[in-house]
Amino acid sequence: MSIKHPIVAVTGSSGAGTTTVMNSFQHIFRRExxxxxxxxxxxxxxxxxxxxxxxMKTAEEQRHQFxxxxxxxxxxxxxxxxxxxxxxxxxxxxxxxxxxxxxxxQYGLEPGLFSPWTDIEPPTDMLFYEGLHGGFIGRxxxxxQHTDLLxxxxxxxxxxxxxxxxxxxxxxxxxxxxxxxxxxxxxPDYAHxxxxxxxxxxxxxxxVPTVDTSNPFAARDIPSxxxxxxxxxxxxxxxxxxxxxxxxxxxxxxxxxxVIVVPGGKMGLAMQLIFTPMILQMIDRQKRAS
Length: 290
Hints:
The protein is of the alpha/beta class.
């Protein structure tokens, strides 16, 4: 953890909604005119698209558990070193995974490859990570220890599957059977390497639908924000102004001393109200230490 070079990490599995949270943070960064180094978790995958397909085929032949959720498919030591170096010096090495033609064209490369490693150019106000492993601890690697604010995004499992099914079918052209195979293949790594991170987060956001999602593989639509609640859990509620949040977030309520439940449509507003003062406190401490 660092006063001069803070790190904010948002962690959650594919289809969980971490991108939505990232957008909320980016609104805060723009409004407060902060220069933030963005790091995408995909950049720390071990294999490019073709290499991952080959590695998966080998793992299947050997009946070996293997997925993007697990350590073997990721450069987690390098991620921990980036967090360590940035928190100490404000420096580090980053790259991008090139998802599509537009991203790849900027580097003269093909989609599915990585951009070259580059050095972070200081000064930056903070580092923001969004991906699978912001709170990872295991195999002698501790990514979580370097984060100043760790946020978990974890819809209930059926909703997470529905979101992934619709995203991968509509945006990536996968068949429903292929997405289901991916979900099942990832489950052991999800249980062992993703779920434990949510016990280390400072704040968790869990979206819970109020409609029937009992068979996620037959759902025609993703439950809308208005058809859900968001359960927000604070690891340490000290300093959280719950009366203010209850006033500002209409129809919200406390379910436990450290948990507030808000209507799904107010998730973005809740993030703004919760994280803006946290970010401003980081920047204030940073300025005082300079």
